[in-house]
């Protein structure tokens, strides 16, 4: 695997965060102080590339509303999420052709959540890479920059996202 991009998760966690109350709320409202990595949006959810990805194509899905626990999600948010989750997998299948996925919420700091605002990680997995525990380590070798990921994902979401697209 060629090393083109090596993010450091720790630099993000230790003080290089933008000065906003909640990074994901800032992303939802397109605040210029935070990186704009949005690739898709529905009525209640935003999908972004991960600024510090564990793997090429690592995306995050989070509610527009500031929610910190899955049990706070409303019925409409839940149903939209299940459609959106499928769409994310279809998009990643088409754009990256991974062989497997890790999908999940980290709820609470002890579980590794560095951002309180609820967010779902969708991490594509590829052949010949290290095991699941390695995605929790501080650094990983990534083969694509977030900027390039955003461009690629936007194209595929546009192509495949028909049913779930935001109505406004
Ligand atoms: Zn928030």
UniProtKB/TrEMBL annotation:
InterPro entries, sorted: AP-4-A_phosphorylase, FHIT, Histidine_triad_CS, HIT-like, HIT-like_sf
UniProt keyword annotation of Hydrolase present: yes
Pfam families registered for this protein in UniProt: HIT (PF01230)
Keywords, ordered alphabetically: Hydrolase, Nucleotide-binding
GO molecular function: hydrolase activity; nucleotide binding
Active site per the UniProt annotation: 119
Positions of the HIT domain: 23-132
Domain of life: Bacteria
Residues making up the signal peptide according to the UniProt record: none
Residues spanned by motif Histidine triad motif: 117-121
Binding residues for substrate: 50, 121
The keyword Hydrolase appears for this protein: yes
Protein's UniProt name: HIT domain-containing protein
Organism: Candidatus Abyssobacteria bacterium SURF_17
The organism's taxonomic lineage, starting at the top: Bacteria, Pseudomonadati, Candidatus Hydrogenedentota, Candidatus Abyssobacteria
């Amino acid at each position: 695997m060629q090393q083109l991009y090596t993010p450091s998760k720790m630099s993000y966690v230790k003080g290089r965060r933008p000065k906003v109350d909640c990074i994901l709320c800032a992303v939802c409202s397109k605040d210029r102080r935070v990186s704009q990595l949005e690739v898709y949006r529905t009525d209640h959810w935003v999908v972004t590339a991960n600024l510090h990805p564990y793997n090429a194509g690592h995306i995050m899905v989070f509610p527009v509303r500031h929610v910190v626990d899955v049990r706070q999600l409303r019925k409409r948010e839940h149903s939209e999420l299940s459609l959106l989750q499928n769409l994310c997998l279809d998009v990643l299948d088409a754009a990256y052709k991974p062989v497997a996925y890790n999908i999940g919420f980290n709820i609470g700091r002890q579980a590794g959540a560095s951002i309180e605002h609820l967010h779902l990680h969708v991490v594509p997995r590829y052949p010949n890479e290290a095991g699941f525990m390695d995605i929790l380590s501080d650094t990983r070798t990534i083969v694509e920059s977030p900027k390039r990921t955003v461009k690629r994902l936007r194209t595929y979401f546009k192509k495949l996202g028909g049913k779930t697209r935001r109505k406004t």
